[in-house]
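Lecture 7, part B: from sequences to assemblies.

Below are the input chains for today's worked example.
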Amino acid sequence: MRIQDARAIVTGAASGMGRHFALSFARGGAQVVAADVNADALAQLQAEAQGLPGQLHTQLCNVASEDDVVRLVGAAHERMGGLNVLVNNAGIFRDGLLVRADRETGAIKKMSLDQWNAVIAVDLTGPFLCTREFAAKVIEAKAGPAVVVNVSSVSRHGNVGQSNYSAAKAGLVADTALWGKELARYGIRVGAIAPGFVDTPILQGMRPEVLQKMLQGVPLGRAGSTEEIWTGVRFIVECDFFTGRCIDIDGGMSV
Ligand SMILES: NC(=O)c1ccc[n+]([C@@H]2O[C@H](COP(=O)([O-])OP(=O)(O)OC[C@H]3O[C@@H](n4cnc5c(N)ncnc54)[C@H](O)[C@@H]3O)[C@@H](O)[C@H]2O)c1
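Predicted structure of the full complex, as structure tokens:
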């Protein structure tokens, strides 16, 4: 599929990678609905997209809410006169060890059930709801071919302090494979990207010495740019023979 033919939904589009993806679709002449929970940042994004060759619409949506997602997909379909791309990008993290014993007192601290549920809701239930509603709409409207891009993470291999996040991002890659198989008969492809460290507000907020230490584990020795991650999204959208797989874009970190 060509980028200029995309009628795309990007979730978590008010910041970081999602913001870059939404603007890139609009720069490429596509129509895009940028969905997020942050209304102010969405308004800024819309202002920035003025004058681009494509069209950028915004929609408030919490991807963990079934009602919001049903509304999002219906509204996006209506506004763009169809739908053929979904980028499941919205994500949060709430890090903590599963259990940790204080060295001196022996007191046990645990990852709370709220911490677990919050991340699973946004990072795994969100893509489930969005993909389900997107696929149902595409099939119902006979709008295929279509493509879903899931944003996973290198953390899916099991990153210390991220029981919740690693489980969600690994689950998303498992669902990429099975949605790829289940939805192929309707002309819907499903792919995933797994970024390593990317230069987004999360990283920009870190202390330089902490960041430096983290980047020592990256063979290419630096964080990726949002543009470098966009090339992965663009590849999955454009390559009509790609489905079911996840592409690591991590500077060699998971090699
Ligand atoms: N930044 C990295 O180094 C990195 C690495 C690997 C994977 N990722 C993944 O990439 C994606 C984007 O990361 P980022 O660094 O650009 O994040 P970010 O925090 O800059 O942006 C995330 C956006 O998602 C939105 N959001 C949060 N909860 C939401 C919800 N319930 N519904 C809708 N929107 C919601 C936020 O408002 C924000 O605009 C995430 O899925 C993240 O897990 C990031």
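Note for the exam: Strands lie at 7-11, 31-36, 55-60, 85-88, 99-101, 108-110, 146-151, 188-195, 246-249. Keep this in mind when comparing with the next example.
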